[in-house]
Write a structure and sequence with these properties.
outer membrane lipoprotein receptor (LolB), chain A, 18 strands, six-stranded antiparallel β-sheet, 4 helices, mainly beta, about 350 residues, disordered N terminus, globular
Length: about 350
Amino acid sequence: MRAKVWTRIGSGVALVGAVGLGLVAVPAGAGAAPELPPVSAEELVASVGQTPPGPFNGTVEVDNALGLPAIPGAPDQLAAGTTQARIWSGGDGKGRVSLPSAQGEKTLVSDGTTAWSYDSTDRTATQKAITPGERHTQPADPTRSATDAIAQLRRTSTVAVDGTAEVAGRPAYELVLTPNPTERTLLREVRIAVDAEKRVPLRLTVLANGSGDPALQIGFTDLTFGAQDPGLFTFTPPPGTTVTEAPERTGTKPHRPAGAEPTVVGDGWDTVVVAEVPAGQPGREPGQGAPDLSQLGTPVSGSWGRGRLITTAVASAILTDDGRVAAGAVPEQVLTEALAK
């Protein structure tokens, strides 16, 4: 469970839970600024995601410069450095993602009705039925990450178009979201490159206050639209694979221990996610191979209790002694106010 605590910390620090940005990036290989017809910020925002882009495939590059402390058990996506993923989309809920790692490869496949997750490292696979109307998001997809960012940050931002760019060989407009002065955040701006023809986001860039370099990056380095091989969206577990069935989603939520559901405090740029480790769960305390997080960061205390503060250029998190985690792209004061509520 301590590994899960670290995941919650990392998710908040990486802005996944805090402001819904997912991973963000400026991909390598961006070309010179192309000449495009002028468009207003409102027109560009209104056009994003209005028309499905159709089938496509591409390579996504993730560049993580968050500066998170290294710790055993942390998820691969939180490790510093550059990683890549391959994405195929067939439309109608069909998709495939390949996530290579030093130990092997994780493959995610959906045919629109069934989703598979396969890990070649330990030869395990999980099969899950997709219920009608269920949104099945592909990880490492800058299009979805950027669309979510626009939806969640637009109301508390100044929005502008700042020129054009070439991303993955395609002309794009640069959409910039800057937090309103009332927003208490460590972030300076979010930049989204929007495909001039398809009007889908191609890259997402997050910049922190006091730095000109992106802190965390995701974006296409190559992208091709067009029909895809139908065989890419079917999956057969290799011989020797251990297969488990994920429970089907129903109209009622599965039982969760008290306090297990994260709480969202605030909105927009200064959103804080507060999560709690259920009492009595194995691994809540260090030991049995779980990473010990008790020495990370610096000691802090307040009316909410005592804990340790972990900070990066773009976010901060507090791990409390009583098992709670508060994380967001915000200063320490905003975290402590959220914990005190």
